[in-house]
Amino acid sequence: MLNWRKLHRRIHKWLGLSLGLLFCVIALSGSLLVFYDELDQGLNISSTKLQNNASANFNNALDTLRKQYPDKQGSWRFEVTPQAKLIPARYYNPPETEHLEFAPMMVWLSSDGNLILRRDYWGQYLMTWLYNLHFTLLLGQTGTWLLGYVGLAILYLLVSGLFAWWPKQGQWQKQLKFKKRSSRIGMLYDWHKLIGLTFLAPLVILTVTGIMLALPKESAAILTKITGPIDTVETPVNHYGVLADNPPIQPNAALNLALEVLPNSRGAWIETPAMKGNPFYYRIRVQTKEDPSQRFPHSYVYIDANSGEVLKVFAYQEQGNSNTVLNWLHPIHDGSFLNLSGRITWLFSGLAAFALFLLGSMRWLSRNQYKSKPRD
């Protein structure tokens, strides 16, 4: 008769030994990334350069960027930070890095928009290098796809550990105790068991959301069958051309207009129109009360840059069930859905994954040494 506990012990052991190091790389890089903004700012921008303005001046920021980088005539993206101490900006697909899959130019300005504090490219400084390591293994789209399927094996690694431990009837209290042992092997097992049971739920949640983020097409296909179609929005089309006599509205005005359209919301990103051609509109990304995602929320307001007309609104609360599931993935995966407590929990969960690999490897080595030890 097949012994399921013994089978899962073997599966858990060999999956852990073969995938454990990769799991540690993913987990430890993820632990750092939950504090991505704080670490990046602390490492690269002196606090003396930060300003405590009531609100950021995106009008000045756009003028400064257009003058400093006259060859960048496309759309700029400004992040609306809650503290307004600086203005992070991005320029996607700059000529300097167009040979790379994803490497926008990153610029940080003073909150009054008059001074450039820093300029860099995605992937060429520590925190974005860690992000690429965590999300792509530095292998581009191939690495992301690989991580998604490796994530399925890691999920089984976690579940097999639970099955391998699962107590027999009447032995639950005994198996949950931390036993006093004299042997090194037994102590390593107890610590591995204790940490594994404590952090099993967070690690499973992180693994499942990570798989879905790494395999968006596959996840969307499954969701569509279970919870219905995924709502999308078509970008506006310019039927009238550019009105030369009508100067474009400024970024701050576009942001304020979007917040009027979706009251009780918070601005998150401002995507400006290009100097010529498309996009001819502002796309303002805002967080409504129902939206769990703070940094990358899911409501959009499209505004004609010349007329100030609201072209389209794609609001979170009007999106379907599949969108709701997808919209929760990022805030769950980065821990922000529980604010600081969630991020701290995720930080320790990544450290726990490393501890589990270390303890499991040490126990395996100790058992092998014990078995190979000559007997008298």
Describe the 3D structure.
The chain has 376 residues and is of the alpha+beta class. It folds into two domains: 4-33 and 135-167 and 177-228 and 339-370; 55-111 and 242-319, no CATH class. It has eleven helices and eight strands. It has helices at 4-33, 36-44, 58-68, 126-136, 140-165, 172-176, 184-214, 216-227, 251-261, 321-333, 339-372; strands at residues 76-79, 86-91, 105-110, 116-121, 266-271, 281-287, 299-304, 310-314. Strands 4-3-2-1-5-6-7-8 form an eight-stranded antiparallel β-sheet, covered by helices on one side. Helix 1 (4-33) crosses helix 5 (140-165), helix 5 packs across helix 7 and helix 8 crosses helix 10. It is elongated, with a radius of gyration of 25 Å.
Q: Give Rg in angstroms.
A: 25 Å
Instruction: List low-pLDDT spans.
Output: none
Span of the ends, CA to CA:
35 Å
Number of strands: 8
Mean pLDDT: 93
Q: Structural class, from secondary structure content? A: alpha+beta
Order of helices and strands: HHHEEEEHHHHHHEEEEHH
Judging from the principal axes of the Cα atoms, what is the shape? elongated
In total, how many domains does the architecture comprise? 2
Major sheet: size, sense and barrel closure? Answer: 8 strands, antiparallel
The helix tally amounts to 11
Strand order of the largest sheet: 4-3-2-1-5-6-7-8
Helical fraction equals 40-55%
